[in-house]
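Hey, can you fold this one?
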Amino acid sequence: MSPLPPRRALVLALGLLAALAGGPVHASEDADRARRALESGEIRPLDAVLAAARAAVPGDVVSVDLKHDDGRWLYKLRILGTDGKRRTVKVDAGSLKILDEDDDD
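Sure. Predicted structure:
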């Protein structure tokens, strides 16, 4: 699988930051918490998460959501598979373990 093109990675990263920073005040606090978690090594960088998800479900990542739930960080990614099906993949942000994979169609 080829790596994510730099422009697409930048767009996804900016979209993630915008999603975390937009909306109510708590979203900005969530972005700060996510940044600190990344800096402390609690979560892995987005490019590593994208690679793990795309290894499990080949295709194009079309959305990324980062949540802190029940004491752990989870990425929820939507992937348009090479077969044309949309899938949701949940990834543990610290271990990169694939937790769940569902067809959206």
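Helices lie at 6-21, 25-40, 46-56. Let me know if you want another pass with a different chain boundary.
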